[in-house]
Amino acid sequence: MNQPIDQPRIFLSYTKKDTREVYELYQKLKDHGFTPWMDTEDILGGEEWKPKIMKAIREATVFIACMSTNSVSKRGVIQEEIREALSTWKERLPGDIYLIPVRIEECRVPHELSVFQSVDLFDEKGFNRLVDALFASLERAGFTPKVVTEKARQNALRHAVTAIMSRNMSHNIGSHIISRLGDNELEEIPRTKYAAFNSFLRTRMEFLATFSMPHRSTFSQLKLYGDIMAQFVPQHEDRDRVEWQEIVIDNISRAEGFGSKNIEANYFINGNRLTPNLIELDPVVVCPEGYLGRHAFYIILENVIRNSTKHATPYGLGHQLEITFSVNTNTPYENLVEVLIYDNFNSVRISHLDESRVDSQLVKRINAMIQQPLFGEHGNLRLNALGITEMRICASFLRGAYPENLKERLTPAVLEAVNIDSNLAFKFYLRRR
User: Fold this and answer.
1) Could you write out the DSSP letters of every residue in 347-384?
2) DSSP one-letter code for 276
3) pLDDT digits (tens, 9 = 90+) for 121-166
4) DSSP codes joined into one string, 94-123
5) Which runs of consecutive H residues, i.e. helices, occur in 32-182?
6) At residue 216, what are phi and psi to the nearest 5 degrees?
7) pLDDT tens-digit series, residues 188-235
8) Which of 103, 154, 186, 418 is most solvent-facing, going by the fewest CB within 10 Å?
């Protein structure tokens, strides 16, 4: 792809035998917000390649000479590229960082490049040193960090979100479900339900994979209850449809003594309990990635169930969890449907024997966790309240904000904790048709 000239280009010089290794470097630089130039990617079919290469060298902000045993012994084009780069370097200002020898494997650096400090890409800290050199080069050349910051921010967000969402597979699904399916229990699970559970796992992994790639902007219109909510925790009259759900719900909170027999669901739309007579009230919402995107809703629900049962057990509240879904289509926001999810454990109360003692700070503490940035002061990924962060990511996704565009604050909030009759409720919004 041809790049605008006002963008700082990073020319990659290499021998064809190192194409695979250099292409990996090319992609990694792009992921970090830089604009690398590589002949196989930036010269169009039918163009004269040699003039294009020489022009790109002269216009480049940085020239990276990728060194290997292959390139050091190679004569021809790569030597011409280095001679052109040395000629261009002589025209630059003293102190500019233009030519960087980068060793992709153990090899000698050619004599004509030995005056420049080289970077060993095969070293553990090699790529970070290269990035530091590139930032210094761009700054000395007059480019502000903003040139690469936005794309770098987007890629850093995507990588962070991918890391957090991967936890869902290892923690909720791996530790709390799969690890509890021993050989004896597998024999008791009907083949159809086990096949459905395998399909659930496959689609969950496909859904989590969407966070590692730039978004595809695919949206489908689904019934909020019929196509999404009822598929996870059906009401009594829908229990004959339970397949993979029974395996998930039976195991996700088994350590706390909860399963599909003592986890119930209540559905309300605009204050009315959903019944077959009111099914026409079921709103149509826009779901990113279609049926695959339903897993964002399910992950929110899994976290609610896990935390409800985990924090309720010490109080001896019995073994009946009621999850309420309260949907409001009459919001101040014309294109949004409000969803509230909460349990029956009165967790906002300090004492379950005295209804007047309410923990007024609990909701504030939860919202502070929701609103905290994904990155700490020094750019490190925050590792506290990962379940809450998972929920925020999924709620943001359901609003159509893909990982690289994740917002810290939106109006209305992507996810918010509220107090509903002393129950901790989570409120988020879906886009309506």
Assistant:
1) TTBS-SS-TT-B-TTHHHHHHHHHHS-SB-TTSPBP-S
2) G
3) 998 888 888 988 998 898 888 876 554 556 666 677 777 888 888 8
4) TT---EEEEESSS-PPPGGGTTSPPEETTS
5) 39-42, 49-59, 69-72, 77-90, 126-140, 146-168
6) -110, -5
7) 677 777 788 888 899 899 998 888 776 666 788 999 988 888 777 655
8) 186
∠ at Cα 345 (339, 346), nearest 5°?
85
Q: Would you say the CATH fold of 151-432 matches that of 9-143?
A: no
* Structure token digits, residue 82: 């280095």
Rg value, the chain, Cα: 28
> For the structural domain made of 151-432, what CATH number should be given?
3.30.565.10
The whole-number pLDDT of residue 373 equals 81
Q: How far apart are CA 162 and CA 166, in angstroms?
A: 6
- Residue 25 tokens read as 């470097």
Q: How far apart are CA 177 and CA 175, in angstroms?
A: 6
Among residues 379, 356, 363, 381, the alpha carbon closest in space to that of 426 is found at 363
> What strands lie across the sheet with 119-120, from one edge to the other?
35-37, 9-13, 62-67, 99-103, 119-120
Question: Rounded to an integer, what distance in angstroms lies between the CA atom of residue 345 and that of residue 327?
Answer: 20
| Joined tokens for residue 348 | 């906002």
CATH H-level, domain 9-143: superfamily = Toll/interleukin-1 receptor homology (TIR) domain (3.40.50.10140)
What are the sequence ranges of the domains in the chain? 9-143, 151-432
**pLDDT tens figures, 163-189:** 888 888 888 888 888 877 765 565 667
The whole model's pTM is what?
0.66
